[in-house]
Amino acid sequence: ARAGKQEVSAATNVKVVQTDMNLCGKEGKPEIAMWRSTVMVEEGQLVVLPCRVKHPLDCQISWTSGRGDGVGTHVRYAVRDNGDLAIYNVTWSDMGQYTCTASNLRGASYEHTFLYPLATRS
């Protein structure tokens, strides 16, 4: 099979990259297959920032904030088994860039998501 990738961007701002299995599996570094570049959500809501790799058992997923802080250990943040980051009760101070990093013994890949909290409707 030929190696390659195709990027698809939909109106929901979700990006999907389809690749041959050898780019993400045991022969190469992980490649992030789904993420969102920008997410807007009302304050007080739950938001899920996706980060999916083709072979999740072959890599480790971690998230950092724009300040470089790991976010998986904070009480309002949870990294799900599929690699997504859930942020509960979003506040204005959560605004900023979040980076998903997928790594294994052969390397690492990362994608950025910008979270923009919106004022709640009155």
Key descriptive features of the protein:
disordered N terminus; 3% helix; 4-stranded antiparallel β-sheet; 4-stranded mixed β-sheet; mainly beta
Describe the structure.
The chain starts with a strand and ends with a strand. The protein is mainly beta and 122 residues long. It has a 4-stranded antiparallel beta sheet. A 4-stranded mixed beta sheet has the order 4-11-10-7, with no helix packed on it. A 3-stranded antiparallel beta sheet has the order 5-9-8, with no helix packed on it. The radius of gyration is 15 Å and the shape is elongated. Helices cover 3% and strands 49% of the residues.
Give the arrangement of secondary structure elements:
Blueprint: E1 5-9, E2 14-19, H1 21-24, E3 32-36, E4 38-42, E5 47-49, E6 51-53, E7 60-65, E8 77-79, E9 85-87, E10 96-104, E11 107-118
Parallel strand pairs: 4-11
Antiparallel strand pairs: 1-2, 2-3, 3-6, 5-9, 7-10, 8-9, 10-11
